[in-house]
Design brief:
heterodimer; A: 161 residues; 2 strands; 49% helix; B: 620 residues; alpha+beta; Penicillin-binding protein 2a (Domain 2); Beta-lactamase; 3 domains; five-stranded antiparallel β-sheet; 33% helix; elongated
């Protein structure tokens, strides 16, 4: 392997160079229309490094763009997810309130059941009046009927006849 | 590795495959090139051709790609799109909420509520915690913790067991608040009837169809099923790999249209009072059944349609018990039908209320003996007296003044032999035979309500027509509808048409105002309500029950109040009373009295102070 390494060095291949060093290449016939600067002239020591743009800012720009995109994506996803969570939470809240409303409506309707009212009234000692009685609100007089005290004992809490 | 010569590849060694030829060096330094085989020269030496072949190959491959692209995206795109959609799209069915049914005062008679099925996934509940979960669930589910634990330990399948069905919303909320692992709840709609059995015969009941949707099984729930049910919607969402809908992925929705709500003309308090009165009398007289129909004559609004026996729509065990007797059960009307033949005689037979008749005990007409229920031989009654005293013999004589066809036409015009159109399913026509099928005595028996079958609703309509000045208004149960957006639309006024002249109606009303007084003299004061001139007619019919002919009785009392400006018609029918008599005045009268008094109070109809008109009943 050592031999191989030695053979790959430029020194070991005197005939191999494919590109001549501009400093050693004789200027016999101009290849460019542009004048070739003389050797040793200022700024001609590194002709290739001047044409190459600095890479670091470009890489930083790319990394920045990528990072920015990633962060934006993350923010959008998080916002969406937050919105989704909020929607779900509100929907659950809505369903729960609807459930409560239903339950309460049902309870009110059940409490308004004439049979329930009659039963409750009876428990309080009330009895249906067998006589029809009407009072004229203008004159304050009884129009018809003979209002009478019910025979059943009044049993309303807090009421004294 | 063998050392290479400075000039590159040693002569005779093969060139590395795929490699470039070595750089050219001055000819003087390289050994003389070995002549290559002649056959390989053109391939290496003609790059244009090689380029052409490569290009052709590329074009060929690209053509294949393009062809496949056209095939996939153009020709077969529909089927692939369908497959993809099937994989990704999911349709969520959104059931519509069934509309409610309320009474005239907005009191809820039927409403839709959510009920829950509670299931468990036992592997999600650690063994050590199962007892605690069972204890926590015992209260809300109304089960013993031992029963719950047994189900958790012996599930129907490894990951699923139903713990309870039909769990009400408050219990469901409690379970949700517990936050137990492995306990799930599935909501479904159920029907609640907060008034219990009140108006059950009108409202009907609901069941669950094959799609899990609430469907009407009887009554208005069946009649207006489409209106109440609304339209089921759906939501087509795109599902991600985790089975959750993708947010903002777009969805195609078919909006849910919740059912409309019905507002009835029924007054629940009045309905309850009528049902109670009916139930008491059926129990007291050991009758088969009792029906009550209360109609507002001017509008045709049915304020109550009660019956006993009835049922609880939340617990229907037998469909037969859901029969609405007032529109489905037929009976012979008896003397309450006399007003129809009397109308025909007054209008088309040249008779007046004062036309005089001699009333023997019995007469022989059409091959049959006809006699009165009460012994009253030798009386001289006017037509008013015949109606007020309810004489079959007298009415048979009155019927002779009109043709059979005229009598039939009047009975038909009053609504017999056809449904009333009140808007309930399976309404009976009754049975009014055409003239061609009449026997020799049919015209006479029809005059006092035998040989014809009617429903309670039909008879209530006959008297509503008289109470409304001779104009028959089609009865209705619907006051209006409220759509899912909450917009209330009142029902269109019921169609009406004149059946008898206003004068005839007034005369009949005045004649019927005499009935309560006559019955009061017979110790049956069920039409005497101070301040109101009640018009009434009693009826007692003989019925057949399938085992024997004309062996049972039907008792009726139909009354109108207040007398001068009628606002209510109350029709009571009690079938087959077995105890305490069978006459209409005795059996149906007390029911009428209680209900009419309640109705006047509940509907706040003040007394008009009118007294019964003076009508001569006895002929000179």
């Amino acid at each position: 392997m050592a031999t191989d390494t030695i053979q790959r060095t430029p020194a070991a291949r005197p005939h191999a160079p494919r590109r001549a060093d501009p400093r050693t290449r004789p200027v016999t016939a101009p290849r460019h229309t542009r004048p070739v600067p003389a050797p040793g002239a200022p700024g001609t020591g590194r002709p290739r490094s001047r044409s190459r743009a600095p890479r670091m800012p470009f890489i930083l720009l790319l990394v920045g763009l990528l990072g920015g995109a990633l962060v934006s994506l993350l923010v959008i996803s998080t916002t969406l997810a937050q919105g989704s969570f909020r929607i779900t939470s509100l929907q659950e809240q809505n369903a729960e309130l609807a459930r409560q409303a239903q339950t309460l409506t049902n309870q009110v309707a059940q409490a308004g059941n004439p049979a329930v009212i009659a039963n409750q009234a009876e428990k309080l000692g009330m009895r249906p009046n067998p006589h029809l009685g009407f009072v004229d609100l203008k004159s304050g007089k009884i129009v018809v009927g003979k209002p009478s005290r019910a025979e059943a004992a009044i049993n309303v809490p807090g009421y004294t006849p | 590795m063998t050392p290479a010569s400075p000039g590159g590849r040693p002569p005779g060694t093969p060139r590395a495959r795929g490699g470039y030829p070595p750089p050219r060096t001055p000819p003087a330094r390289t050994p003389p090139a070995r002549p290559r085989p002649a056959r390989r020269q053109p391939a290496r030496g003609d790059p244009t051709r090689r380029l052409g072949i490569t290009l052709l190959a590329i074009i060929f491959v690209l053509s294949l790609f393009a062809g496949r692209l056209i095939q996939l995206q153009g020709m077969e795109s529909a089927s692939y799109r369908k497959l993809a959609l099937q994989e990704r799209d999911r349709t969520i069915v959104l059931p519509a909420m069934r509309g409610s049914i309320t009474g005239a005062n907005g009191q809820v008679l039927a409403m839709t509520i959510a009920k829950y099925q509670v299931t468990a996934d036992p592997p999600q509940i650690p063994l050590a915690k199962r007892q605690r979960v069972a204890d926590a669930l015992a209260g809300p589910l109304g089960m013993t913790s031992a029963a719950i634990l047994a189900r958790l330990q012996h599930p129907t399948s490894p990951q699923y067991v139903v713990l309870a069905k039909g769990v009400p919303a408050p219990a469901s909320s409690q379970i949700t608040a517990l936050g137990l692992p492995g306990i799930h709840q599935t909501a479904s709609y159920a029907r609640s009837y907060p008034q219990g059995s009140i108006a059950a015969n009108i409202i009907g009941f609901t069941g669950i169809d094959s799609n899990g949707i609430l469907t009407g099984g009887a009554g208005l729930e069946l009649q207006h099923n489409a209106l109440l049910a609304g339209r089921t919607g759906s939501e087509q969402v795109q599902i991600g790999t985790d089975g959750q809908p993708i947010p903002l992925a777009g969805s195609r929705d078919k909006p849910v249209v919740n059912g409309s709500s019905l507002r009835l003309t029924i007054v629940p308090a009045l309905q309850y009072a009528a049902e109670q009165a009916c139930a008491r009398q059926v129990k007291k007289t050991k009758a088969d059944n009792c029906t009550v129909v209360i109609i507002q004559p001017k509008t045709g609004a049915v304020l109550a349609m009660a019956q006993y026996p009835t049922y609880n729509p939340s617990h229907v065990t037998n469909v037969d018990q859901t029969t609405n007797l007032a529109v489905q059960a037929q009976f012979q009307p008896g003397s309450t039908a006399k007003v129809m033949t009397a109308s025909a005689a007054l209008e088309r037979g040249g008779q007046t209320p004062m036309s005089a008749y001699k009333i023997p005990y019995q007469i022989h007409e059409g091959g049959q003996f006809i006699h009165d229920a009460e012994w009253a031989p030798g009386e001289h009654y006017t037509i008013a007296g015949i109606i007020a005293h309810s004489s079959n013999v007298g009415m048979s004589q009155v019927a002779k003044h009109i043709s059979e066809q005229t009598q039939y036409d009047y009975l038909r015009a009053f609504g017999l032999g056809q449904p009333t159109g009140v808007g309930l399913p399976n309404e009976s026509d009754g049975d009014l035979p055409p003239v061609s099928q009449w026997y020799g005595d049919t015209r006479f028996t029809l005059s006092f309500g035998q040989g014809v079958a009617v429903t309670a609703m039909q008879m209530a309509e006959v008297y509503a027509t008289i109470a409304n000045g001779g104009v028959r208004v089609q009865p209705t149960l619907i006051e209006g509808t409220t759509d899912s957006a909450g917009t209330y639309t009142p029902a269109a006024p019921s169609p009406s048409h004149r059946v008898i002249q206003a004068k005839t109606a007034k005369e009949l009303l005045q004649i019927m105002q005499q009935v309560p007084g006559i019955d009061a003299e017979g110790a049956q004061p069920w039409g005497v309500i101070p301040g109101y001139a009640v018009a009434a007619k009693t009826g007692t019919s003989q019925e057949s029950n399938g085992r024997c002919a004309l062996c049972i009785y039907g008792s009726s009392w139909i009354g109108i109040a207040p007398g001068d400006k009628p606002q209510l018609v109350v029709a009571v029918n009690v079938q087959n009373p077995r105890k305490g008599g069978h006459f209409g005045a005795v059996v149906a009268g007390p029911v009428f009295y209680q209900i009419m008094k309640n109705a006047l109070a509940i509907l706040q109809i003040p007394p008009d102070g009118a007294r019964p008109a003076k009508v001569r009943l006895n002929a000179p």
